[in-house]
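Handout, section 4.2: multi-component inputs.
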Amino acid sequence: MTRNVSAELLILRKRAATWILLGIWTLLGVFFAYVVPYALDPEDSPVGLVEFLPESLAGNLIAGFPFFGGVFALMLGVFAVGSEYGWGTLKTLFTQRPTRLRVFAAKLAALGIVFVPFVLTLFAAGAVASYVIAQIEDAAVTWPSAWLLVRAMGAGWLILAAWGALGVLLGVVTRGTSLAIGVGILYALVIEGLLSAFADSVSALEPLTQIFLRANGYSIAAALGASVDSIESSGPGSYAGPFVDSVQALAVLGALIAGLVAASAFLLGRRDVA
Amino acid sequence: MTHVSDLVIETRALTKRYGDAIVAVDDLDLRVRRGEVYGFLGPNGAGKTTTLRMLLGLVRPTSGHATVLGAPPGSPRGLARVGALVEAPAFYPFLSGRDNLRVLARHAGVNEDRVEAVLAEVRLSERADDRSATYSLGMKQRLGVATALLKDPELLILDEPTNGLDPAGMAEMRQFMRSLGEGGRTLVLSSHLMGEIEQVSDRVGVIRDGSLVAEGTVEELRGRAGLRVRAAPLQEAARLLGALPTVERVTSVDDLLDVAVDTAQAPVINRALVEAGIAVSEIYPQKASLEDVFLELTTNGDQPS
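Output:
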């Protein structure tokens, strides 16, 4: 299995899209979490200047994962499997020795590994940005505890993994990338966004929204220090609740990952490869 | 009689349907023996590629049974000993030829030393570090063959390996395929090109509308030689020859007679015609080409005589 995973990592490492997405993700992540709100006026922030200082690093950055980060992870997930249909390389892979499920498991493992630098790079860039702001404002530099940072990074990875699993399923279902990304973004923006918004007035929707990636991702983010006021006012990815218990959110995300992966594996294993 | 263990590929009533209307492969019984070059011949859309995909586990049969090297199609045990190139070769366009092979070697559990060996074998070493997207069609085909050879397989399945190649590339590929078939390796070669199959194959199976309509050596398929006779008056010559006990059949082809008879009977035929006052201007042995047989099999549906 190690060699299968290393084969998949070689593909991801040499693929320009991986590095382009990592670069855009890091730049935009810092831009929207620090540069834009700070440049506008830090006092306009629901929490104030403290949101941009090192002590709020974990909460400020994790708030970007459930939607903004999710879309990036969705694209990576789609690319990981959907591109194989476009290139016709699945038939080449499936006529080597390993079973289809083994190849799929290697792809998932490689994708999971690739999410690690995505999380680490953003946290590193965010740390630099918060430090610079603290220096500009002549504020005290107080870093969050290592335990909080580890939990935040772990949660960030889990949220990306859940969206990535959705991308993988969409790539398998549509046997390609374009439609999969379109449907994925439509789901993120329209289905989760609108239904979550309507849940305020239609109580019957509330149980449904509680299994959404967005609801559970933001619930974890809030538990790790993300400002609920900021989450509610963060543009197209905003979320006004309901927030669920963080343990429940972790369990739901884990179950969603398992379900999405199982559905993908079933389809990939059963369907003919043209 | 062929011993079961000598069969590298065996299918029984293998069938693939798409919905109710399309039968891509219909009740196919195929037997490929160890060490032979088996030509799988059929027009486009006859079911060749679907059959090969089923043998590789890429497509699930609707019914029937198949074994490849004694294992179910697509099983790791079988695939470890099979190399395949199905239709157009497919690679990661952003990876070099060498990296594409490294990826596949790692998946196949093959030592990466094999990568350099197969690159040399298909004469791609010099361009191995270039992105595969920059390769010509001929180079992509060669990289596809390198992929198939990576596991040093007992069985090679090549589907239309000369597709898209120029005449020089086709000649080169044919020569290469002949060398692949040497040394005890079994080669299944699918094509709709008669010359390719005729020059390379030990045995040939002809498929039409998903069914095997003929199978045998090229010589067997071409049938026995007969005689072609140009004589006048033609109808009287045909009637006379048809009455001879050694002649199986006489058919008129344009202004010639196609006489199904042992070619050693040519002097007897000639004498009979001349003694009957029929002018004989030409008499020569004639054997059907594989192309004639193929066209007959894949258009009329008749078995060769």
